[in-house]
Amino acid sequence: MVQSMSSTPALVVDNLRKTYGNGVEALKGVSLTVQPGDFFALLGPNGAGKSTLIGILSSLVNSTSGDAEVFGVSVNKRRNEAMKLIGLVPQELNFNQFEKPFDICVNEAGFYGIPRKIAAERAEKYLNELRLWDKAQHQARMLSGGMKRRLMIARAMMNEPRLLILDEPTAGVDIEIRRSMWQFISGINAAGTTVILTTHYLEEAEQLCRNIAIIDHGNIVENTTMKRLLSKLDVETFVLDVDNAPSHLPTVPGMTLRRMDEHTIEAEMPRTQALNTLFEVFSTSGISVTSMRNKTNRLEELFVRLVEHGRQEPSKEKVA
Amino acid sequence: MSNLSGNLIALHTIVRREIVRIMRIWTQTLIPPAITMTLYFVIFGKLIGSRIGTIQGGFTYMQYIVPGLAMMSIITNSYGNISSSFFGAKFQRSVEEMLVSPMSNWVILLGYVTGAVARGLVVGVLVLVIALGFTSLHIQHPLITLLSVLLGATIFSLAGFVNAIYAKKFDDIALVPTFVLTPLTYLGGVFYSVSMLGEPWQAISRVNPILYMVNAFRYGVLGISDVQVGVAFAVMLAFVVVLSWLALNLLRRGVGLRS
């Protein structure tokens, strides 16, 4: 595995714009930097421009203007060199369904100029690590949805890229397989590969990624560390399972309580507020709490706010 | 690893994959032309040909049509192979495996063309072997025979590649063979000598590229041709150059492949 020792950023996206032939402006001057060794989340609602950005980085989409550099190599000017550094796991299945996983991986390595002997060793290694080795000689169309997703990850690893881009790799995959995929990708990242992840499972991004960019309507609306972003969340909502929720709930200073049904109460409160007051009031009122959890994933709550905020307030560009 | 050695490994990968594909679906790629040509030999060569007598320098009609039918099989199979394989890769999006890789565009083109020419060659050999069951053949000019097969197969591989690039649905790769390739083949002197035609049909026939391929091949096998062999090779080379330029230009611009 190639270690990311240099200080050259893994990715520099510079004022990238893309307007499709039908006039749709998918990217409106996107700029961002990803440091080597980072686990970077690129989030955004459907149609925000994530896949267009990834398409440009992997040379499947031609940019209208701007450029991107992968470890200092321009995608526009030195495409072939830049592509050697990237591994891509696309959103849609894009392998020949009639070929065998082993052949798909070995051929992929061949396209990157990797000799067949080395390619066969790597195919065995990554198919094993992704628990697909027993299916290596079956036709790919016979694999389950989760296996097909894992096959695309194994295929993307064949050139042992310095930058691995995963476009919704866990879409439609059950939680057990998703976790095994997280484990694999985390291991790859720990070994030095820079990872860029797009996902609609925000819990996934929160657990795995250190830095994050949120893109909406072709603009980056947030680009910071995961820690700093999460610290912006000032209000949290807890769901409390109780043995019997009274129809008239007691008042707790600084909190808003809502009775959802006879066994569920929601409590919305500032993140700085201690929970002790809530339990004291509940205890006095004879309400017994059996369990509690966050209503939504913290990142999900922030994501929705940021995207909604962007839609309510016209961007500077639109105003100009 | 240098760019050249990387590109050569990539080229080998595409060619190998294409040949594996041809062999995997041999009932679709190799058997149909063998059956079709056997029927042509039985019906046109034996049953009807025996009543025609000799043609151009004492060749039986069967001997006369063998080179044309072999060339017809070679070009239709080369064309069909590349158009269905490359469009299939586009349709399944597996073409993206190559588009996101560092390989150069000429490698993609040369890989697919080599695969298609290989199928054309295998089919050509099959047809000639079947023909030997019906008549005797002595190849007069082996080098010209081989070169004309390679050039003919290359031209139609390139044309099939261009067709696949523009195609948006499977119907689009069937249109050209049905409305262009088949009429040109039948009017390209496979079954007759253009000298049998009156004007203006003889002049019109001379703008048909297949006429030059069939006659170059016929010259290689039988030693007779309706056109000058040098002219035939010049025409074929010109088509190779123009179609290669067109295909590479389409790949560079990403027409039908990149957004």
Short description:
The complex is a heterodimer of chains A (320) and B (259). By secondary structure, chain A is α/β, with parallel strands linked by helices.
Structure description:
Chain B: The chain crosses the membrane at residues 30-49, 61-80, 106-131, 143-167, 173-195, 231-251. Chain B: Residues 24-254 form the ABC transmembrane type-2 domain. Chain B: This is Transport permease protein. The complex is a heterodimer of chains A (320) and B (259). With 320 residues, chain A is an alpha/beta fold. Chain A has 11 helices and 14 strands. Among the domains of chain A are: 11-85 and 161-231, P-loop containing nucleotide triphosphate hydrolases (Rossmann fold, 3-Layer(aba) Sandwich), CATH 3.40.50.300; 235-298, 2-Layer Sandwich (Alpha-Beta Plaits). In chain A, 34% of the residues lie in helices and 27% in strands. Chain A has a 6-stranded mixed beta sheet with strand order 6-7-8-3-9-10, sandwiched between helices. In chain A, helix 6 links the parallel strand 7 and strand 8 (194-198). Chain B has one domain. Chain B is globular. Chain B is an all-alpha fold. The model of chain B has no long low-confidence stretch (mean pLDDT 91). A two-stranded antiparallel ribbon of chain B has the order 1-2. Chain B has helices at residues 3-24, 26-29, 31-48, 61-91, 95-99, 105-132, 142-166, 170-186, 201-205, 209-222, 229-253; strands at residues 54-55, 59-60. In chain B, a hairpin with a 3-residue loop joins strand 1 and strand 2 (59-60). Chain B is built from 11 helices and 2 strands, in the order H-H-H-E-E-H-H-H-H-H-H-H-H. Chain A binds chain B through residues 20, 55, 58-62, 79-81, 83-84, 86, 88, 90, 92-98, 103, 107-108, 110-116, 155, and chain B through 1, 3, 5-7, 9-10, 12-14, 16-17, 20, 24, 88-89, 92-94, 96-104, 254, 258-259.
